[in-house]
Amino acid sequence: MRIILLGPPGAGKGTQAESITRDYKIPHISTGDIFRYNIKNNTELGKLAKQYIDKGLLVPDDVTNRIVEDRLSKDDCKEGFLLDGYPRNVSQAEALDRYLGERNLKIDHVINIVVDRDELVKRLSGRRVCPSCGATYHIFTKPPKVEGICDNCGEKLIQRTDDNIDSVLKRLEVYEDETKPLVEYYGNLNLIRNINGNKPVNEVFEEIQALIGDEV
């Protein structure tokens, strides 16, 4: 089974990806993880990507495509995979289609987790982190025992710069601009399936399970 998981920051993609890959026994492929792996291991593709990242530039589509295709060629992807963070645009989607088509493979599901903007802002702006031990909290859903203080080490919690309201709104705007054409692309292929991400985590996964069914 080959799945693409879409959804804005704060939609809970990471949590759902864990459940999907666990229950359906397919690898979770995140572009961020792939980049970090290749850079850490100093591969040729990693060196190439690092040149752009070090300059604060986006890694070009052709480099990203090559890194993803290299990952998809590994043995653990033979029975399927879950893609998270790729494709990010129509050009990458077309490259992925070509890669799979050449191998007589195809994407089975494009799952788009949809969450109301107000809820996304609430989720993202409510996050707090410990600068000392890295523990993560949320003022609404996972508050510390003592307000503003880390349970683990007693350090004062902080709000990351990219979690303030202005940054959150900008991140959501960028995502919507990037993703709208992608949703239309997969919609035209009758692959996109919208999932209500406003629900509790377990109910969101139940909806995903109902969509995927018993496929293996």
Overview of the structural elements:
- This protein is of the alpha/beta class and 216 residues long.
- The chain has a domain at 2-26 and 79-116 and 176-212: Rossmann fold (3-Layer(aba) Sandwich), CATH 3.40.50.
- Helices cover 47% and strands 13% of the residues.
- The protein is built from eight helices and seven strands; from the N terminus they run βαβαααβαβαββαβα.
- The strands form two sheets. A five-stranded parallel β-sheet has the order 2-3-1-4-7, with helices on both faces. Strands 5-6 form a two-stranded antiparallel ribbon.
- It is globular.
- The model has no long low-confidence stretch (mean pLDDT 92).
Summarize the structure.
The chain is 47% helix and 13% strand. It has 216 residues and is α/β, with parallel strands linked by helices.
